[in-house]
Amino acid sequence: MKSIEIVNGVYWVGAIDWDLRDYHGYTLPGTTYNAYLVVGDDKIALIDSAYPGFDDQIIERVRSVVDPKEIDVLIGNHVEVDHSGTLPALTKMLPGVPIYCTANGKTGFQKHYDTKDWNFHVVKSGDTLDLGGKTLAFLEAPLLHWPDSMFTYYAEEKILFPNDAFGQHIASSERFDDELGRDVALKEAQKFYGNLITPLAPRVLKKLEEVGSLGIVINMIAPSHGVIWRSYASDIVNAYLNWSKGASKDKVTIVYDSMHGSTGTLAKAFAEGIMEEGVEVKVCLLKDGKSEGTHRSNIMADVLDSKALLVGSPNLQNQLYPTVADFLSYLKGLKPGKLGKKKLGFAFGSHGGSVVAIKLISADLKAAGIDVINDGFGVQYRPESADLERATELGRDLARRVKAL
Ligand code: FEO
Which of 63, 303, 314, 378 lies 20 to 30 angstroms, CA to CA, from 329? Predict the structure, then answer.
């Protein structure tokens, strides 16, 4: 197995997981667990590792550069198992090797692994490690993604290793943004942001401000998932700034499931009205859960860049349809309506006489920070032509409000 030299003396030695299709509720076409070997004149450091079961990829890629037993320092930017799963094998191979991590990192590793023989070296923001001609600096980044998270910065080449931040869940032969293509890389990063980073937006803004105030210049961003940002580093930083401030388009996302087609007919009537006003609309049927636009995690990027969100469900046993309940539970956790810019929305659906589902949707939209603009639009059984005309007009009205935001 091969490593990839990303700059002189720094190598990608990560693992590619081509088979992964679901990762904590996120559907994905595989992913990468990026690890980086930094070879100084005096010491060699390995930044992060991989999910359990991928030890061989990490160790063999390191071996393509140096004997893995020559590693002097392990750096654990993040405890979550997709970045630390190789540490048991590495600490066994390298008895006594120092593991650089935050105080929360030490606690987290102790709760995940048998660490009685691990040699923790706790660092805080501003601490540095001189590898001989290569200096690594550490910046605590709590809750980006977990309380233990930190960024590592290679000062001489101005490379940021931010672990999850700026990542993308893709498995590919491309290692760099310009190889994958700017637009694809940003699209995948937006999906990653929408599904993982959205509730952390205030911390993203604070951290980027801190990086700026410390005068930290970034030439390259080497995250723990996906491609390395070497040509478009400033683009992804700007995208994170914009997403974190709630920047969105004149666009409406409509998410629904339907029992016998009536709720779906309403969804499309809203969409017609929205399109008549020249506003972009995306209609997402929650169905098989795997293909594009039918799974909660495939929809979150659309929600992120929409100024409005409509959610529809039929009543089922006086509850939400299960797929819609799943989506709303996910949405409430991510809270895309609290990103700093208003997102409008309302509920809709067909029912047999009770509007329970519409009430439940409205409550959940509010919990997700959405500005719910009416009590919802319900029809009993099948929508009649007057209902569809009314739905189309509601779509037009919503589109006009979106354009006015
Ligand atoms: Fe990719 Fe928070 O782990």
Answer: 378
Q: CA distances (Å), 293 to each of 57, 73, 300, 327, in order? A: 33, 43, 9, 12
Question: Ligand 1 centre and the CA of 186: distance in Å?
Answer: 18
pLDDT at 25: 80
**What residues are paired with 15 via a beta bridge?**
33
The finding on whether 203 has its CB within 6 A of some atom of ligand 1 is: no
- Type of residue at 50: A
Q: Is the pLDDT of residue 288 over 90?
A: no
Which atom, in ligand 1's list, is nearest to the CA of 196? 2
pLDDT tens sequence across 171-206: 999 999 999 999 999 999 999 999 999 999 999 999
β-strand pairing of 4-7 with 135-140: unpaired
Angle at 28 between CA 165 and CA 58, to 5 degrees: 65
Averaged pLDDT for residues 94-121: 98
User: Quick check: CB of 77 below 6 Å from ligand 1?
Assistant: no
- Please say if the pLDDT value at position 254 is more than 90: yes
- pLDDT at position 295 is 85
Q: Report the separation in Å between the CA atom of 369 and the middle of ligand 1, taken as the mean of its atom positions.
A: 25
Ligand 1 atom nearest to CA at 225: 1
Helix (H, G, I), strand (E, B) or coil at 343: coil
Task: Tell me which residue has tokens 């501003």.
Answer: 126
